[in-house]
Design goal:
It is a single chain. Helices cover 30% and strands 28% of the residues. The chain has 10 helices and 15 strands. The chain has helices at 42-49, 119-141, 159-170, 185-191, 200-203, 223-231, 255-259, 274-287, 290-296, 305-313, and strands at 2-10, 13-21, 31-40, 65-73, 83-87, 102-105, 111-112, 151-154, 175-179, 193-198, 214-219, 233-241, 263-266, 297-301, 320-324. Strands 3, 4, 5, 6, 7, 14 and 15 form a 7-stranded mixed beta sheet that branches. A 6-stranded parallel beta sheet has the order 10-9-8-11-12-13, with helices on both faces. Strands 1-2 form a two-stranded antiparallel ribbon. Strand 1 (2-10) and strand 2 (13-21) form a beta hairpin. The mean pLDDT is 97. It binds NADPH dihydro-nicotinamide-adenine-dinucleotide phosphate. One of its GO terms (molecular function) is acryloyl-CoA reductase (NADPH) activity. This is Alcohol dehydrogenase.
Length: 326
């Protein structure tokens, strides 16, 4: 038997609860993992509260991330006792996920836990942090170097935003943070932001083109914010778009792209190829200051995940939440 968060949907409605489940209920897979830590991302918040159509099968154990130790494996190259990490691949959406003490998975989804991280640290980073690194790598690929000018991070107090601020500042970029929580300015400055902007200035409909400011940007917010960020990006600058905290829409014009040569790069962490994941994790080991990671991380137990998921969607959670499932 093992403890898990379970999401059900039936005549009684959509609900999540903490449950004790039988090993026999675990889904198909060639690797069984004793989960040590999981985490809460925005998508887990949507799944647990039912506020977004994330879960595709019921009942579902949520949790798009997990770190733990292999208990059984028939997958070539994965042995009992290996420490492993999983991010995405539809786990916690269409296949039982990490907010549980045990998981059964496809071995091809797992990557070795990087030697630099404990399972807890890897989950403090989680999909949010790994996505932030994918955004940074995309900016680098487009030639956005620290000497090119200021880089904007939107949704800066969130998980992706906090890691993006910390990594970019560590790499020597001048980082400007946009947030709806200006009272967290000291926190964002401790992560490395040099200036804090009120997100209200990006949130409302804006002009097709605005004053050129950003050499690059990491946007976790979407909607008018992303449109306004593109409109204020400098000639040949790059915006990495990964999120939709404000909305899924993109009410923009082509002006920034055809008049300023701005590049909009889409970032997807869920199906990203294995080599890119391994690269992102090794970059996190190199470029994310562990003291800053500790500053942005709060730990909760499995029993607290349901309430915390609701708070996360209300924008009340700062940085990252790591879940000790045991
Ligand atoms: P968090 O909830 O931790 O962060 C989201 C942040 O967005 C909030 O902290 C808040 O920051 C800001 N925000 C919230 N609501 C609004 C709003 N209505 N308008 C403007 N800003 C808002 O989530 P994560 O960091 O885990 O994820 C961030 C986004 O990235 C999500 O949309 C998520 O779905 C997406 N994502 C996408 C991935 C991919 O593969 N493409 C992978 C991981 C995440 P502040 O208080 O500073 O304003």
């Amino acid at each position: 038997m093992f403890n898990a968060v379970l999401i059900e949907k039936d005549d009684a409605g959509y609900r999540a609860s903490l449950r004790e489940l039988d090993d026999a209920a675990l889904p198909e897979g060639d690797v069984t993992v004793k989960v040590e830590y999981s985490t809460l991302n925005y998508k887990d918040g949507l799944a647990i509260t039912g506020k977004g159509p994330v879960v595709r099968k019921f009942p579902m154990v949520p949790g798009i991330d997990l770190a733990g130790t292999v208990e059984a494996s028939s997958h070539p190259g994965i042995a009992v006792g290996d420490r492993v990490l999983l991010n995405g691949w539809g786990v916690g959406e269409g296949h039982w996920g990490g907010l549980a003490q045990r998981a059964r998975l496809k071995g091809e989804w797992l990557v070795p836990l990087p030697a630099a991280f404990t399972p807890r640290e890897a989950m403090a980073i989680g999909t949010a942090g790994y996505t932030a690194m994918l955004c940074v790598m995309a900016l680098e690929r487009q030639g956005v170097t620290p000497d090119k000018g200021e880089v904007l991070v939107t949704g800066a107090n969130g998980g992706v935003g906090s890691v993006a601020v910390a990594v970019l500042a560590g790499l020597g970029y001048t980082v400007v943070a946009s947030t709806g929580r200006p009272d967290e300015a000291d926190y964002l400055k401790a992560l490395g932001a040099t200036e804090i902007l009120d997100r209200a200035q990006f949130a409302a409909p804006g002009k097709p083109l605005a004053r050129e400011r950003w050499a690059g940007a990491v946007d976790t917010v979407g909607s008018h914010t992303l449109a306004n960020v593109c409109a204020s990006t400098r000639y040949r600058g790059t915006v990495a778009a990964c999120g939709l905290a404000q909305g899924m829409d993109l009410p923009a014009t082509v002006a920034p792209f055809i008049l300023r040569g701005v590049t909009l790069v889409g970032i997807d962490s869920v199906m990203a190829p294995r080599e890119e994941r391994i690269e992102a994790w090794s970059r996190l080991a190199r470029d994310l200051d562990p003291a800053k990671l500790a500053l942005m991380t709060r730990e909760i137990g499995l029993g607290e995940t349901i309430d915390t998921a609701a708070a996360l969607l209300e924008g009340k959670v700062r940085g990252r939440v790591v879940v000790d499932v045991n």
